[in-house]
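#lab-general

N.A. 3:47 PM
ok so I finally got the sequence cleaned up, no stray characters, all 247 residues accounted for. can someone with queue access submit it? mine expired

B.Y. 3:52 PM
send it over

N.A. 3:53 PM
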Amino acid sequence: MTIAPQIVHICDHIIETHEAKCTTLKVVRGSGSEVDRFPPGASVKKIFSVYRVDNAETLENTFYQPIIEYSLINNSVKWGSGTGPDTGTEYCVDVYLVQSRIEEYISEDCPRCNGNGWYADLMAQSEKNIDRLAGISKIVQDFIKILFTYREDGGTYGTKLLDLIGQEVTDENQLTSEVASMIVNAGNKYKELQSSSIVDGNNLDDDEILDKVIIGDISFDPANGGVYVLVRLYSRDGTMRELGVGV
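B.Y. 4:20 PM
back already:
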């Protein structure tokens, strides 16, 4: 069995962005607690200073020393016993924080996958570990790499698919035919590479051998001048995965 790092991921069209910056937050001292929480939506990583609101312009009289009288814990200011502003006092905190924003798109407008339903990245969003692939999932990833690798003149790996991007469309039937041909050729190239690997002594299980590539649907989008193809990849053991390709 062969295993590879996963770089192709299914897109859920939900994109989370993180912005790191230094800024000032206003906090109101609560009662009955030594912890004042920061406003929601920001993850504070470091406190630089704490001062009264009326000193916000000059910053000449910061009060309370970091660590000694207050500390950062669970996105809050934790005050030492007997310290801190008076109850109800509004005060400012200079901080370094990371602000998160989550946006959900419909498939056609998703800037990450461009409506294809998949995207390539070393790690999926919000993941800290690199996943590994085998079987049909690795077949899909390897096929995408061949399809979207630009083949230089005289080369044998990749396709000329990227040459079609941005071209003026004069004959949509010819364009869809060219795209379909390149997809089929990418599958044939992958099968050729796997056959050579087996001849060289590398044992592959049936679930990781590409059996056939079927074009389920191919359509021309006159509004955007592009082609969308639904591709079905089958492994030798009969497992199938669908793949959307937009050009």
